[in-house]
Sequence to fold (317 residues):
Amino acid sequence: MTSHKQDDKQDDKLLDEFAFITEWLSPLADNKAAARLGDDAAQVAVPDGHELVISTDMLVANVHFPADAKATLIANRMLACNISDLAAKGAQPYGCLLTLGVAENWDSAFLQEFVQALGEGLKTYDMQLWGGDTVRARDGFAGLTVHGLVPQGEMLTRSGAQDGDDVYVTGSIGDGFLDLADLGSAYAAPMPPLAFGQAARNLATAAIDVSDGLMADLDHICRASVGGIDIEANAIPLSEAGRAHGDLAALVCGGDDLQIAFTAQPSHADILGIEAEKHRIALTRIGKFTANAAPKAILRAEDGQEIALQKRGFRHF
Fold:
């Protein structure tokens, strides 16, 4: 794991970067693969019959979290955003690389809290830290490159939806968007449906994690699978807070849900229900995929009319 100094000045509120790595991060590392972060790279073997699934997500201050956010929130959110990608691929977490931009207001106490939360999260997901990079930054940022495992040829993609497939979503939609304002639990400590994603690997035909907004993310399936999706507005699963909010358009486009949206053949409805119950996951059928239709997800009212949406989801630029 590498580190970089911005200058030679020592901040007495901040642990020396090499001590930060060796004393705090190395206990989280896989000794065999990453040599306790004592080298420039990790060496990792892929189990026979499996393939690596690799994804990365970066969180930046004042974009993905408030600049004064607590370290635990940042670590939990960083982990969940990346685990959500693996969940939508049906993958089992294996290892990760950490990229950390240490902001000026991130002192040693902050970093210690961050590492503690990171360590707890890695244990939860049975994932080892393999390495990464630490730098000084004006605006703090934190990201992971996660590596997961799937049996050879079984990774879920966005491109497998078939004509007549049902469209499902796990959990409820809009809670992450609603909780962003006050950093409530749905935003600050989400739990992506990882085990269910693995269980659905051979049942779903296409899948995506809901992070930028349900409609925007379903659009990705539409484009990749070359077809359209009709979504029944009254079928969208909402929490009590979501129903009280009342603005369905904002909820389906707000993002930060970290749920899984996927397509599956109607004949798999019963077994999907059994798997959802087994993994204690709320699962809702919300629409249907039509091959060779306009590549877009359409939200339809009870009378079948399209509900216009001014913004379909979050965009970074």
The CA atoms of residues 166 and 288 lie 5 Å apart.
